[in-house]
Amino acid sequence: MHLRQIFLQHVAQTSPAPIGIEIVKGEGCTLWDADGKEYIDLIGGISVCNIGHRHPEVVNAIKEQADKYLHLLVYGEIIQSPQVRYAKRIADLLPENLRSVYFTNSGAEAVEGAMKLAKRVTGRTQMISFKNSYHGSTQGALSIMGDEYWRNAFRPLLPGISRYRYNDFGMIEEINTDIACVIAETVQAEQGVNIPDKEWLQALRARCSETGALLIFDEIQAGFGRTGSLWAFEQFDVVPDILLLGKALGAGMPLGAFVSSFEKMQSLISNPVLGHITTFGGHPVSCAAGLAGLNVLVESDLISTVKAKAELFRKYLQHPSIVALRTAGLLMAAEFQKAKICQEVISECIRHGVLTDWFLFAPHCLRIAPPLTISSSEIENACQIIRTCCDKVQNELN
Ligand code: PLP
Questions:
Q1: Atom of ligand 1 nearest to the CA of 185
Q2: 255 and 186, same structural domain?
Q3: What's the CA gap between 387 and 398, in Å, rounded?
Q4: What is the rounded distance in angstroms from the CA atom of residue 23 to the CA atom of residue 353?
Q5: SS3 167
Q6: What number does the ligand 1 atom closest to the CA of 106 have?
Q7: Domain limits at 342?
Q8: What is the pLDDT of residues 377-389, one digit of tens each?
Q9: Is the same domain home to 84 and 230?
């Protein structure tokens, strides 16, 4: 049987129309399929491959760690140097109140851990999240997800969750002493890139401090240089109580984390002991890869190139079909009038060797979130292909 048929039959499917190309190799910003066709990767595994596919330093770190040991024991019992060194490296790049890192396998698990931590630290159960926010697909993360369509089929979900409009000053007063935490993406991604006002995030911070609610920032998609600073919150002069990391954290390997203060994390130690358990979270190979990846990111000038690269996209992505281009560094959304146009453009782009995608809550927006290593010529080339595909779709639909 052809590999595609086996894929469709034996790999559980969640989409009626998966992209379904077989990739055999990735390097930098390029992917190759089984027929040798080349693709410029404009989505980088959905904000995972910030330093490109298979960075040599990351591949070396993986090999070196694989030669030493793989899984040893459940989380937190044995000293595993890749985990320890990575936690310290992350802590040294964060403010004083974010010094303790709990490693998970994925972003959603980091969200779950953070929700539990907020309950334990505050002794409260109610939570606030935001419309059009995505935090993962597990039941806790789904409970705080900001879109009814995606949640409804899986009820009952967690009680005590209120969802308000993102970037709305009117909701600030809703944060009171019953609230365990307010969880927000520092920049909303799946809404098609929604950048909040600095003053709004600052007002959230002030009200959380006033009421004792913990402020949680989800930077699973926006972190690791994607928006033009190592952490997106740096651009807003606001520091959360808990920071959520994932995606690029593992530099291509599965890894998530919730980060908070040493004192807050201590609450997971007792009553009950082992307040959060994971078998594989913080896997030594993932941590070795992530540490190598973070070192590449902060020791190179990559992050400082992000804004200029976004400007290049803006320069080259001019087309009558594109009604808006929103950019938070290299987290970008090109908006079309209708979802149908966007979907056709995506399919056409893939046929022409540019891999792009849409957004969960904005199917009329084209996702552009390439590895931060993308070169000027790759940007020019990719934009030219997108414009050609827009022409073709426009002509066909007229
Ligand atoms: N939070 C945000 C902002 C995300 O974009 C995602 C995944 O897309 C998650 C959480 C969940 O991460 P994961 O898919 O690793 O569970």
A1: 3
A2: yes
A3: 16
A4: 12
A5: coil
A6: 15
A7: 12-41+302-397
A8: 999 999 999 999 9
A9: yes
